[in-house]
Amino acid sequence: MSWIAGVGMTAYGKLPGRNTLDLMSEAATAALQDAQLERADIDGLVCGYSTTFPHLMLSTAFVEHFGLRPSYAHSIQVGGATGFAMVMLAHYLVEAGAARNVLVVAGENRLTGQSRDDAVKTLAQVGHPVYEVPLGATIPAYYALVAARYLHEYGITEPDLAELAVLMRRHATAHPGAQFREPITIADVMASKSIAAPLKLLDCCPVSDGGAAFIVSREPTHAARVKVRGCAQAHTHQHVTAAPALSELGAEISIAKAREAAGLAISDVRYAAVYDSFTITLAMLLEDLGLAKRGEAAARVRAGYFGRTGEMPLNTHGGLLSYGHCGVGGAMAHLVETHLQMTGRAGNRQVRDASVALLHGDGGVLSSHVSMFLERV
Amino acid sequence: MPKLADWTTGVEAILYQSCASCGKPQYFRRGFCASCGATGLAEKRASGKGTVYATSVVMRAATPETRAHVPYNIVLVDTEEGFRMMAHGANDLAIGDRVSARFAGFAGRLVPYFEKVN
What we know:
The structure holds 2 protein chains of 2 kinds. By secondary structure, chain A is of the alpha/beta class. Chain A contains 12 helices and 11 strands. Chain A has a 5-stranded mixed β-sheet with strand order 1-7-4-2-3, sandwiched between helices. A 4-stranded mixed β-sheet of chain A has the order 8-11-10-9, sandwiched between helices. Chain B is mostly beta strands. Helices cover 3% and strands 45% of the residues of chain B. The longest helix of chain B is centred in the middle third of the chain and has 4 residues, at 64-67. Chain B starts with 14 loop residues before the first strand and ends with a strand. Chain B folds into 2 domains: 7-45; 49-116. At the A-B interface, α4, α5 and β5 of A face β4, β5 and β6 of B.
């Protein structure tokens, strides 16, 4: 058994003057404080990666920088799925007895540490270097291809996708750390400039600076008792050209395995934290996970189902789409918010009941998936 | 047997591999069949004919060289030979269109470019 003993996170957005290690340190400090632990208590460290600090040994660099002496440390990389994959690894390390308190930390000055062109170019490299990248495809274009097909197969419209951007923005307005807090409308999304049809600017998450951290422990260290109930992964491909059919993507595989590992059903879930790099990502994942019927995610948004006071509050911090996306830390913000909700500390964003949460991360182009259930006991 | 060359090295051709064991075609070239692991692969030249699986007209490019081509249509095409490939296409292509490939210049390279056939 493992517990999410503490969480910490910076504001996301433009944070000039802070580099990767600074942002990691800030988040790690907050998580330690939240877990009421000291540096000396940390015997495991799991890091991700940073595109502005592409180090061969990020975890060791952080060990030295932050002043840790763990008996286990390394980094892992599965794109946007990294954050939850790190928690899954920490969970296994604790269960195996390899560590008592694992620090999971990420940070990146993705926005101010490089030009926007460099960010777009770096991210496009998840594409195939021989058969895709030379065509001038970008991450939005890879997802746009999926979006075009998904809209075609299931009769979804662009205004349907826009509903998800509007919802994430509405949620972000209540979080002081969110990068974008001005309310937007469907018309705003539809009028925003096209990036890669059918995706427009407001269908895409921003590039952000930020950092987030958790501590996964053998014992719950304070009153807030949130345990990892079960998790699973699925990896089906890397490149969109080689992706399976829409009905055979990894999210459906990982959620089925995670449900089994947790012994829970979707009907047990009270709060959802789902990866939302683009509106299409969120719409598809909600439907793949069983949080909405196929083609009906937007209708559920319109009915208030995923709102703060709805039946299944979703990404109440504003998600990647509005809280921001700083790389590995992007999805970790979903877990920080989930923890605050589960422990009754979300303030004006607090939902009625977040006793069981479902988290899902996606990396690449729907390539790598991690599904995870958390439970408050 | 001389190795065939394709658009990825500047030659006007689309190549694929066909597995002698399981018969599956694959587009990304490697020394074995990703489906069954067999190493007996035949390199073949594709007809360039297929059906549009998905399209996206790119308006925001990442480099000055590619930006000069905006807007350009990135397409996924299901080829007659049974493999899927990414390419460029005419801006008015729609999902389900029957298409045929020619080759065009893009950011200093040669890329496959699909157009509708009637």
